[in-house]
UniProtKB/TrEMBL annotation:
Pathway: Purine metabolism; purine nucleoside salvage. GO terms for molecular function: purine-nucleoside phosphorylase activity. Keywords: Glycosyltransferase, Transferase. Residues 37-275 form the Nucleoside phosphorylase domain. A purine D-ribonucleoside binds at residues 198, 240. It holds the Pfam family PNP_UDP_1. The lineage of its organism: Bacteria, Bacillati, Actinomycetota, Actinomycetes, Micrococcales. It comes from Terracoccus luteus. The keyword Nucleotide-binding does not apply. This is Purine nucleoside phosphorylase. It is an enzyme of class 2 (transferase). One of its GO terms (cellular component) is cytoplasm. Phosphate binds at residues 43, 75, 97-99, 129, 217.
Length: 278
């Protein structure tokens, strides 16, 4: 049964009230009064959810106000309440995200992050599959996001609310991730609108601007997370070399295959990082 909710696309709707309503439904369906850390699983990361911890409850997205079914192959249309080891803590794992290119508006893109905050989370881990600009990062390499460049020309922050993004990707959480996996590199993520892949010229532009990773998600969610006071850890999975660097055409199947190949390492990384954060 689908829960009726105000339309996030309606400018008269308060998106934070919808997030609070969504959090209440999640608490009811999962039996957890609060969750401690949230994960958003991007392209190529779907298999890692099973390695994070025991799933105690699963809720279909379209049963929760403001959420929608997965629109992209390789994403799950549900969210899970997952036990974080034997700590007694809970992780709220979103199996999909709403991408900006779906045309639902920025509020829908960042709804999961706002819901995580309303559900009690103090930190959020944002993952994605991306194109790499560094030829040394072979497909299947996880890379920490140090900073981002938002090329969507949009922001989730509405009105005269000025949000400091100096340390948007929390240094303390990046240190925790490097303690788990000392071999992790880090870089600057560049979000394009999509859904078309970047042209070779756009990839060269991203490199000139200081980018190391290119994709179609994450930056808007990270901004929204900072606005509500969440600590943010961003991890990209390099699923292919970006256009003009890779000698072969880009495809979404390549993204999924890289995710399958890296599932064990990424699952172990996420499970250990989440346990230490929680």
């Amino acid at each position: 049964m689908t829960t009726a909710a105000p339309d996030l696309g309606d400018p008269t709707t308060d998106p934070f009230e919808v997030a609070s309503l969504a959090a209440s439904v999640i608490a009811e369906r999962t039996g957890a009064e609060r969750h401690d850390v949230a994960l958003v699983l991007g392209s190529g990361w779907g298999q890692t959810a099973d390695l994070v911890g025991e799933t105690l409850a699963t809720v279909e997205n379209d049963d929760v106000p403001g959420f929608h079914r997965a629109a992209v192959a390789g994403h799950s249309g549900s969210m899970r309440s997952v036990a974080v080891g034997d700590t007694g803590r809970r992780a709220l794992v979103f199996g999909t995200r709403t991408h900006f290119y779906e045309g639902r508006g920025v509020r829908a893109v960042v709804h999961a992050v706002r819901t995580a905050k309303a559900a009690g989370c103090r930190s959020v881990v944002l993952t994605n599959g991306c194109g790499g600009l560094n030829p040394d990062w072979s497909p299947g390499t996880p890379v920490l996001i140090r900073d981002h460049i938002n090329l969507t020309a949009h922001s989730p922050v509405e009105g005269a609310n000025f949000v400091d993004l100096t340390d948007l990707y929390t240094p303390r959480l990046r240190e925790i991730a490097r303690e788990v996996d000392p071999g992790l590199d880090e870089g600057v993520y560049v979000q394009f609108r999509g859904p078309h892949y970047e042209t070779p010229a756009e990839v060269r532009m991203a490199k000139v601007l200081g980018g190391d990773l290119v994709g179609m998600s994450t930056s808007l969610e990270a901004i929204a997370a900072r606005q509500v006071g969440l600590d943010v850890l961003g991890i990209s999975l390099v699923t292919n070399l970006a256009a003009g660097i890779s000698p072969v055409p880009l495809s979404h199947e390549e993204v999924l295959e890289a995710g399958r190949a890296a599932a064990e390492r990424c699952g172990w990384l996420l499970s250990e990082v989440v346990r230490r954060i929680a």
